[in-house]
Amino acid sequence: MTNKHNMQVLQELAVKNGPLCVGLDTDPSYIPENVLKNYASPSQAVLAYNKEIINRIAADKSACCCKVQIAYYEAMGLEGIKVYAETLKMVRAAGLIAISDIKRGDIGATSDAYAKAHFKGDFETDIITINPYMGFDTLVPFTKYAEPEKGGKGAFVLLCTSNPGMVDIEHQELKAGGLLLDRVGDEIARIGNQFKEMYPEQTCGLFGAVVGATQESDARILRDRYPEMFFLIPGYGAQGGAARIAATLLDHAGGTVNSSRGVLCAWKKDAELAGKIEAGTLTMADIADAAARNAIASKEDLLNAKKAL
């Protein structure tokens, strides 16, 4: 039994390795055609690419975690789901935290099943993402796995997402006053802090929040409102979120900043590979090296932005 829950471990890794989260939302289309054809199937190429990236970022200490978006693997069918499971194992074996981006959230018995499916067995992970908009009772089953003897599992709950349509729901004003996202945030904080007796050394709650790096107006408000909450910060990189917004969200308890396509497709903009791209002679090692270089550059970009605050 450990005295640290997974969110605490992630918070500490973010300090040690830097705040970057590498999103392994790996679509076969992100792999050059001449590389893809060397594998028995697109899913096997994805597995090989994931392995190369994980090995490099672990060796470079350029990231603290990997976020694996299950939809990309479901889209590849049964073989893709096997690759999803193998990818999670590789992330955890490399000493990084595995975040499964599954965005589950349903009535009690169904949430019980989701929690069992993703916190133990073939798809075991460290932290998952949860959608709270069917009600806060849907969050309770996931807390059962937060106890030390069950692995100290954690969750990031959707709070202020990075998509433009977030204003349709998350920014709605409540009759009681305030925004819906404030009500959600308060509940995440309450749940995240209810295990302090089990984890007396915790410096962040075992439930964190997803807060996008695309809304500068929200960043400072949310960071100051929830100083003890660790954030998962999407939107940086390909979605256009600036490092300065991400840096604001890294204040107080901190967070991890996700970059998916920015890392996975870095080879497309890598000056060192221009000749090979034109000649169609790229290798798996080439594109993995480009991903690793981008991860290091992204880590430095985020750390410099944080220093400049």
Terminal Cα separation, in Å?
38 Å
Give the tally of β-strands: 8
Shape: globular
Strand content: 5-15%
Biggest pleated-sheet summary: 8 strands, parallel, barrel
Note the total helix count. Answer: 13
Can you walk through the features of this model?
The chain is an alpha/beta fold and 309 residues long. Helices cover 45% and strands 13% of the residues. It contains 13 helices and eight strands. α3 runs parallel beside α5 and α10 crosses α13. The mean pLDDT is 94.
Question: Secondary-structure map with pairings?
Answer:
Layout: H1 6-17, E1 20-23, H2 33-36, H3 42-60, E2 65-69, H4 70-74, H5 77-93, E3 97-104, H6 108-119, E4 127-130, H7 140-143, E5 154-160, H8 180-193, E6 207-211, H9 216-225, E7 231-233, H10 243-249, E8 255-259, H11 261-264, H12 274-279, H13 284-307
Parallel strand pairs: 1-2, 1-8, 2-3, 3-4, 4-5, 5-6, 6-7, 7-8
Helix pairs in contact: 3-5, 3-13, 9-10, 10-13
